[in-house]
Design a protein that fits this description.
Number of helices: 10
Bound molecules: adenosine-5'-diphosphate, magnesium ion
Helix content: 25-40%
Low-confidence stretches: none
Oligomer: single chain
Structural class: alpha/beta
Strand content: 15-25%
Amino acid sequence: QLSRNFGGVRALRSVSLDVGPGETLGLIGPNGSGKTTLVNCVSGVLAPSTGTVVFEGSDVTGWSRTRRARAGLARTYQSLRLFRGLTVAENVESGLVRTAADHTVARQTRVEAILDAHGLLDLSGVPVTDLSYGLQRRVEIARTLVANPRLLLLDEPAAGLADEETGALRDLLVATRQRLGLSILIIDHDVSFIMAISDRVTVLDEGQVLFSGLPREVARDPDVIAAYLGTPPEDDEHA
Ligand code: ADP
Ligand code: MG
């Protein structure tokens, strides 16, 4: 039952949702519907006005961002936040700074394993700014995964990607989930991408849950169509 106000703006109004172990939950909704605010409250960037965040049985509402990250709660941001002066490997390693994996050899092994799993090993030594936007996104996800999180929060990871890059991201996330068994909460405007990757979908509208259910149900829900999806193209012919 998370609520968050910004002055008079009620960005979240008693939103309840859950992500199960190993589950991928897609979160969609119009611009300004409160998606990023929700992720900010769950990851500890913002305190909710009211409500609680429970992670693996612990009430983490009062925990700092760092403490949540250490407990296994990782996120990416809507805009890239890579260290522009560092290489691919150095950026990925920076994801380990706040974990207990201090031993240099163990760290390097872990970084290399993640780079390999993400098809980035050959680019280890390349300055991250030399990569395409799609590859930079991939580095960012690798950086969040290197600390072995239990829940990954992805805020619009496919925004600005070309179609084939979105496809690669989808395959990567599916493989990662199978390999690590982690839970994912993913926000994106690309509805077909969300449908393809999610076990369940929640739709926010004006800070409230408009719909929660299976991907195939969401596309047929009249409220969701009216508020967000619009009329499917095939129905236009009968209009
Ligand atoms: P979404 O990610 O779904 O596009 P946001 O969570 O970013 O939506 O925003 C929800 C509402 O809260 C919007 O009206 C937005 O202007 C407002 N909002 C979000 N963050 C802030 C902030 N830090 N200060 C003031 N208003 C904010
Ligand atoms: Mg947002």
